[in-house]
Design brief:
signal, alpha+beta, glycosidase, Jelly Rolls, Immunoglobulin-like, glycoprotein, globular, 6-stranded parallel beta sheet
Length: 888
């Protein structure tokens, strides 16, 4: 056996911080019985961090349930992991033995059988330590984590950084644990092991590092992979051993292979794949991936990784991404517009990678029509499994290096740590087709503009010299972006590079059509069921609270909500003034969520269109906004924050509005000095058909006027198909509606745009809303316009884990809304209720298994065109004789 994963038998124990213990003293403490918080805890599901283990044993409550951290005592202690294991064949091995750590928090000392074998000082690095003296029988491994809080408090910086560089930014720890921006209040400092711990022996060799660079020939007919493998071991012992490299396609067929004797410490192999399938983002085509397999050693050919062979696998793909203008990308020669969200670590208490949790987020990204996620510079470090899943799903990654809104020291030792991190990251990840670009980090240059205008930007040396130099050496064909945001006359200039949507706090010239938004945010609450887990009833709606905003009561929520919010969220809401004052907690949650959704709708539709309708006659008009990455995708604690998916991975109204706005083929309405109906095509193929445009009066419950327009939209084309000025003057009680039909009569998209803010509208209170099951789908109908229809599920009291293909939607009378149930539930009561209707529809849902199961619904969503409302009538095959929608 060449490698063993040390997973079983770990113990965890706390020690008072500030003492230099000898390893025998640590070992002796584990031998004492202990009790309460001082006992030795068995780590049940390694790797786990300290908060994971304590939560397993009920010593602490989950701080993410309420967004309040009541266990700050954890930060005051050192924590030691202990493992007793049998060395077996690793004892007296012919070659060197190595201990590999794939994820440890910042300040750790590692002992094997009482001997210090290495120290860790950077949470973003993998470590490999040579070890000696592995015994055949009992071995003891100790990993001692010093209190990060004490270490950070003890940092002393040179005088020139005082008052500028916070001490947490002078160490390479997970900085998010030291403030309240993402997570419970007060902050939660993570500690412990979050990745695999393995032993490996050479005997006679091991892979040291394997990198792969994939590229396409100019004509796209050949995929080329340059694989560089370096080895551990004594060259004179392994020279002549075999290296085998091969590429397999999605069906497991070998498409390229080479076997050669190893003659030096590093070998480079060039493999050619004829006529490769290209990798596309999921909204533009199939993300074809290949598997690269490498084995080395005497078993490289016959046993393929067993016995004496060492093996490595990587997912690769063939695509060509180029930047043809300012943040203007093409993939495989086609225009690429980028629509997605910022991903943050899913849980504040641990960096441990949980595949099931990430699968749900991936599913929500797919359902939400994302083609990109940004790995934020203050998020966690993800393993290969994360990037492989992005490769397979066709989700591009904007990859930050791990820097954030802060100044940083520029001392040689710190710069060297940043260099090592960047080298490790780029070499490890550059083989993934999903990596779009490297970015120097989050808001480092913006910090200069906001916090130190006119002064030095401590950290600029890192993002403008160290990191780009590493990228140029390791991955020269990928774009490097200095920091997010940057470009133009100031870091957040919308007219160049990327920008962050801080228009809730700043007046930003050029904000109407930024070149690219890598963040754009507003705050809202989770859905009501999550709010009930967050707060007690008296916190949700305190006695005497009125829900009205006045000069003396300026906040949009009760003071009790402030305990569950971070980063002054109350001043970062959407246009809540457009909605009725709330008289209940439920109404307040809706008001804030609807305002967030309205902000997303107005902003994203405008960015997708890319210019104003009155500019359409200008020669050479092109879309000015090339992408939008929402801040943020997910909340990692049950708090009131920016996430459109909450801690329990429940999507609320803003998520579904973003999903609709990200439809690859979008129909939207621009209402300004003049009105326009637009089509925007980001599907990668031409789309043609016919638009039906009409006014619908929600008070009279009838259509007021109608006309039709043909349209043709090429890939990356966005245009106003027609003006609605032909309606002349009309009352604001009308909705402006447009339905796009394909040539075959399929509904490709639609919009129903209100002409007035909600608090001035009179939406029907009795909509005749009905819901029933047809096959495995739900079908929702109404006899009057239904504003914001919410679907909820309940299986024996379990309201969580339900997921619907669409939700929080407006419904025109006479239309069927057909919806798939995609969550983990296969049965239960499903209700449908419009926000202003006291009546509700209800059905008993039972999965019939007549179609694809609702559990694990990857790639059920059409990657080229959105699922759509279906009219309550047979579809026509000739668009030019389409009748009016039934019931209108």
């Amino acid at each position: 056996m060449k490698k063993i994963n040390l997973r079983e038998g770990w113990l965890l124990k706390r020690f008072p911080a500030g003492t230099e213990y000898r390893p025998e003293e640590l070992e002796a403490a584990f031998g004492a019985p202990g009790s309460g918080k001082d006992r030795s805890f068995s780590v049940r599901d390694f790797p786990e961090q300290v908060h994971d283990v304590l939560l397993d044993y009920g010593v602490i409550e989950n701080p993410n349930e309420t967004g309040i951290n009541r266990d700050l005592w954890i930060d005051e202690y050192d924590w030691v992991y202990r493992l007793e294991f049998t060395g077996g064949t690793f004892a007296g091995a012919g070659g060197s033995v190595y201990l590999n750590l794939k994820g440890t928090d910042t300040f750790a000392s590692v002992y094997l059988n009482g001997t210090l074998v290495g120290t860790c000082c950077d949470a973003f690095l993998d470590y490999r330590f040579p070890v000696e003296g592995v015994k055949a029988e009992e071995n003891v491994l100790l990993i001692w984590f010093r209190s990060a809080k004490e270490k950070v408090n003890g940092v002393r910086l040179p005088e020139r950084y005082e008052g500028r560089v916070p001490t947490i930014s002078a160490v390479r720890a997970f900085r998010s644990g030291f403030h309240e921006y993402c997570g419970p209040v007060p902050s939660l400092i993570r500690c412990g092991i979050y990745g695999d711990v393995t032993l490996a022996r050479e005997d006679p060799l091991l892979f040291d590092e394997v990198t792969a660079d994939s590229r396409l020939s100019e004509d796209g007919e050949t995929g080329m992979v340059a694989v560089t493998a370096s080895f551990l071991g004594a060259l004179e012992k392994y020279r002549g051993e075999l290296l085998r490299a091969r590429i397999l396609d999605g069906d497991g067929c070998v498409r390229a292979e080479e076997i050669r004797p190893i003659t030096k410490r590093s070998e480079t192999v060039e493999l050619m794949v004829p006529h490769p399938k290209l990798w596309w983002p999921r909204t533009m085509g199939e993300p074809a991936v290949y598997r690269l397999e490498l084995t080395c050693g005497s078993g490289a050919v016959d046993s393929c990784g067993s016995g004496m062979a060492d093996s490595v696998e990587k997912v690769i793909g063939f695509r060509r991404i180029s930047m043809v203008g300012d943040m203007d990308f093409q993939i495989n020669g086609k225009p690429l517009k980028l629509w997605g969200a910022n991903l943050v670590h899913p849980d504040t208490r641990s960096n441990r990678y949980r595949p099931a949790v990430m699968e749900r987020l991936f599913n929500l990204a797919e359902l939400g029509n994302f083609n990109i996620l940004r790995v934020w510079g203050e998020s966690e470090r993800y393993p290969e499994a994360f990037y492989e899943e992005c490769d397979r799903r066709g989700i591009l990654i904007w990859q930050d290096f791990y820097l954030c809104y802060s100044a940083y020291p520029e001392e040689p030792e710190f710069l060297e740590l940043c260099r090592r991190e960047a080298e490790q990251m780029t070499r490890r990840l550059k083989s993934h087709p999903s990596i779009l670009l490297w970015c120097g980090g989050n808001e480092t240059l913006l910090w200069r503009d906001y916090d130190n205008p006119g002064g030095p930007c401590f950290g600029e040396e890192i993002v403008c010299r160290v990191l780009p130099q590493v990228c140029a050496e390791q991955d020269p064909d990928r774009y490097y972006h200095p920091s997010s945001p940057c470009g133009g006359d100031f870091a957040n200039d919308p007219s160049a590079g990327d920008t962050h949507g801080y228009t809730h706090l700043w007046f930003v010239p050029g904000r109407e059509f930024p070149v690219f938004l890598s963040e754009n945010c507003r705050v809202s609450t989770p859905s009501m069921k999550s709010m009930r887990r967050m707060m007690k009833p008296e916190e949700l709606w305190p006695p005497g609270y009125t829900g009205c905003v006045s000069r003396r009561q300026r906040k949009e929520w009760p003071e009790s909500w402030e305990l569950h919010n971070t980063n002054q969220g109350v001043i970062k809401l959407g246009p809540v003034e457009h909605y009725y004052d709330a008289e209940t907690a439920e109404e307040l949650v809706y008001r804030i969520g609807a305002a967030h959704a309205e902000y997303i709708h107005g902003q994203v539709c405008r960015f997708r269109r890319g210019f104003r309708g009155d500019e359409a006659s200008s020669t050479g008009t092109v879309r000015r906004t090339n992408g939008h990455i929402l801040w943020k995708f997910n909340n990692n604690s049950n708090i009131i924050s920016y996430g459109i998916v909450d801690y329990y991975q429940e999507p609320y109204y803003p998520y579904y509005e973003l999903k609709r706005c990200y439809s690859p083929f979008l129909v939207s309405c621009e209402l300004g000095d003049h009105g326009y109906i637009w089509v925007t095509n980001d599907t990668g193929c031409a789309v043609s058909g016919r638009l039906e445009i009409f006014l619908f009066d929600i008070v009279k419950n009838e259509r007021q006027a109608v006309f039709y327009e043909n349209f043709q939209a090429e890939p990356d084309e966005s245009k106003p198909v027609c003006t609605i000025d032909r309606f002349g003057q009309f009352k604001k009680t009308n909705l402006v509606c447009a339905v796009a039909y394909s040539v075959e009569g399929k509904i490709l998209g639609m919009c129903a745009e209100p002409c007035e803010i909600e608090r001035r509208m009179e939406y029907p209170e009795h909509t005749g809303l009905q819901i029933k099951q047809e096959g495995d789908d739900l079908v929702v109908t109404a006899s009057r316009f239904a504003r914001c229809v919410e679907l909820t599920g309940d299986e024996d009291g379990d309201e969580f884990g339900w997921l619907f293909e669409d939700n929080y939607f407006d419904l025109l009378p006479g239309m069927k809304k057909r919806i798939r149930v995609l969550g983990r539930h296969e049965r239960g009561t499903v209700k449908a209720k419009a926000i202003y209707d006291d009546d509700e529809g209800k059905t008993e849902y039972q999965l019939l298994m007549s179609s694809t199961s609702n559990v694990g619904y990857n790639r059920l969503i059409d990657s080229s065109l959105p699922a759509s409302d279906m009219p309550d009538r047979p579809l026509q095959t000739e668009y030019y004789i389409l009748p009016s929608i039934a019931g209108l």
